[in-house]
């Protein structure tokens, strides 16, 4: 569930703000400085809010920049939406309880239609996250508190393990953890692959990840990066309207369904992408069925085997196959 750079048509161009690595480095320096001032007897830092009402004007500062210090969960909602009124209080309560391990950004889709359009929001509530400037799809529709905790715990783990982003007590630095991260530099070959992906050099990123996997076939981070880079390369020149029209016009057109599933995933509609491909597997045979099945497995790699939506889709795939 942790794409590094899902900035394609229909999704906010997060990569255009600043390099995520630079933002993360500045955030670490700021946290360390706040901690140093506090330890030296200075004025304690002003606590930062963990629940924000975000607009198109404040999105960059309150979501993209804040995402270098802690995962930012983005809740798209509207006043007239009944399920939103069920979900939003749960997310707000958990944001306070988690004390800065994630920040909740609430976006009213009626007041911020451009943002909703850029994210490809088609139904609400719809929840995504931004980590180190990168878009991470979470879930659509209302979920209960236990399910929300599961998604949030997974997001926090991903933010730390994949991006080195560790939130903490609101307004407090965590210099000992920042120091530990600095003492464990990333593998230079893998770092080069990540940098190629972040700057949009998809061909270079794909080759770099393949080089890593040639030496370390079991490297999970390289597998994830390769799956993401290949997905972005597949969709970069696609016309979303034309692809969706082709897929809707002919459900038996396997290539159209594959292309539409890719766009679904890039737009954060994970379950739609999985469901489309499961249905395609179910209605096809032979080589066409195998193409759809393999593409679904590729998308599982992008999202991550631990994601509950992957487990659900695997079960659905098994039902149509056997």
The SS-based structural class is alpha/beta
The number of strands is: 5
Distance between the termini: 27 Å
How many DSSP helices? 14
Query: CATH topology of the largest domain, anyone?
Result: Glutaredoxin
Integer average pLDDT: 80
Note the main sheet: 5 strands, mixed
Could you give me the name of the CATH homologous superfamily of the largest domain?
Glutaredoxin
Order of helices and strands: HEHEHEHEEHHHHHHHHHH
Strand numbers in spatial order across the main sheet: 1-3-2-4-5
CATH class of the largest domain: Alpha Beta
What is the number of domains? Answer: 3
What's the CATH architecture name of the largest domain? 3-Layer(aba) Sandwich
Structural write-up:
The chain is built from 14 helices and five strands. By secondary structure, it is α/β, with parallel strands linked by helices. The chain has three domains: 14-180, Glutaredoxin (3-Layer(aba) Sandwich); 185-235; 240-321, Serine Threonine Protein Phosphatase 5, Tetratricopeptide repeat (Alpha Horseshoe). Strands 1-3-2-4-5 form a five-stranded mixed beta sheet, with helices on both faces. α8 (202-215) packs antiparallel against α9 and α9 crosses α13 (286-303). The protein is globular and about 60 Å long.
What's the SSE blueprint?
Blueprint: H1 20-39, E1 51-53, H2 59-65, E2 72-77, H3 82-98, E3 103-108, H4 113-118, E4 126-131, E5 134-140, H5 145-163, H6 175-182, H7 188-198, H8 202-215, H9 220-235, H10 240-249, H11 254-266, H12 270-283, H13 286-303, H14 308-321
Parallel strand pairs: 1-3, 2-3
Antiparallel strand pairs: 2-4, 4-5
Helix pairs in contact: 7-8, 7-9, 8-9, 9-11, 9-13, 10-11, 11-12, 11-13, 12-13, 12-14
